[in-house]
Design goal:
The complex is a heterodimer of chains A (80) and B (170). Chain A is of the alpha/beta class. Chain A has 3 helices and 3 strands; from the N terminus they run H-E-H-E-H-E. Chain B is mainly alpha-helical and 170 residues long. The chains are: A alpha/beta (80), B mainly alpha (170). Strand 3 of chain A pairs parallel with strand 1 of chain B.
Chain lengths: 80, 170
Amino acid sequence: MVQENVVEKEKEMAQKGFEPRILGFFCHWCCYAAADSAGVSRYQYPPNVRVIRVMCTGRIDTRFILEAFRCGADGVFTGG
Amino acid sequence: MAETCKQFLADCGINPDRLSLEWASAAEAPRFVELITGYVNSIKEKGELGSADDEAGEATIRRRLKAAVVAAQARKPRTALGNLSKRLHKEGDFSKDAISEGVSSKILPALRAERIKEELLLVLKEGEKDLDELSSALSAAKEELEKPLAQLQRKGVVEEKEGRFQLAEK
């Protein structure tokens, strides 16, 4: 039910103008901390990225990225 | 790994620029904001997955990715990846050209073969097909399909009747 609401909301958003769904893999020690401090210092950046924190960018496997695209991501951003 | 992914995405009919690998240290919040804004804008320009000019249609991409996920777990491409990293380490040449050459000659063929084998099964699940239809559905040459088809027939998963292929009934 919740899932359906989310899907409907996203469809509505899509009609208003294309908002890409982007999956982010962020390294716990670098990019994730950078994203955190960007938030603390109130920088503005697009809200399209859904973040998955990994302990190291080296942990990311080819399969993760393919799976992300298969689940409907329009882009994958890896930050080390 | 990133190079493997990019080449494999291109092989699946997806624009490889949809995957980005960038570096921002914990102290570089402004750089991070810049990177992420630039990246989101570039994806906005490309539009939804499967809608850019150089990409296959959405249904094809979904099917292909399903096969690709299985292929990425298969033993042969993973061994190829391990062997390549070992070789690069030994030779000490980590230039972009060396990596991209190694990936396209060693890993990509293994990944592509696995992907084609999986995709054949997915296409045949939709109904029986002849060789021409299979080759256009997978955007692969007929010669490329012969080997996996023969393998699947030997295993008894696929049957051939008067030039048309179908999944064997169990």
